[in-house]
Amino acid sequence: MKTILITGGTGLIGSKLSLALIAKGYQVRHLSRQPISTAVIKSYSWDIEKNSIDENAFVGVDAIIHLAGAGIAEKKWSNKRKEEIVNSRVNSTQLLFDYVQKMASPIETFIAASATGIYPTNPHKIYNENAKPATDFLGDSCEKWENKIDQFNTLGIRTIKLRTGIVLAKEGGALPKMAKPIIAGVGAPIGDGKQWMSWIDEDDLVNMYIYALENNSINGAYNAVSPYPCSNQNFTQVLAKVLNRFIFLPKIPSFVIRLLLGEMSIIVLGSTKVSAEKIIATGFKFNFEKLSESLTKIYHE
Q1: Any idea which architecture 3-300 has in CATH?
Q2: What is d(CA 103, CA 95) in angstroms, rounded to the nearest whole number?
């Protein structure tokens, strides 16, 4: 029975991943700023700003899954918020590395979340894991983040980066925000509606983390996205159909989104079509390849 230490374990994916691992017989521990232990999950404290972790968290740990990080779309991108986004990822990864390299017996595997934001926005190109990072804020943030993750390779630890797209889940993330105006009858495509959205169902993402954990041949960066990305307009139409609503309003002009969100508008106006071929080539199977399959499961099962 292997022991897995998870950061961000109480978040949207972390909580579901924790339960899935326990169901498979793993021992699961969490690192948390405010540790609260349950009957099945022991929680240990860490403080990124103070560069401290309860060292007991690492005793007997076989693998670490690092999901912690400030939400990209939770607040407008002031200079302070951008600094928080970067530091929450870069500094937390460095802190984990500093403690892991002091361990008497190092962990076997380090799996970390990254994001498709590492790729440039371009409606005419399909990005795979070999593409150069974008030079904007998101691309630069992800590159700094991944450079810290890659340090674990120097310790002989199998290191995986899952570059995650838009995660579809009813309980949180982007989907409830996208569904709310449609449910209210005021939903509409954004900008020209042609921008690509690379997404993944929450259950497929949880399964991908477990797959990466259990398959020793998995190493390096993989795109955690469905093999069928879609345009913003198509996404809006499929979501409306699943919710039994009609889209009758005109598209929301790009300039309105830029006025509302500022630099953060790149999240909804940017176009990034990302390939899932690398992870599929390893033998990974998606349960929800098509958008309609994922949304139907989320809202009707």
Answers
A1: 3-Layer(aba) Sandwich (3.40)
A2: 13
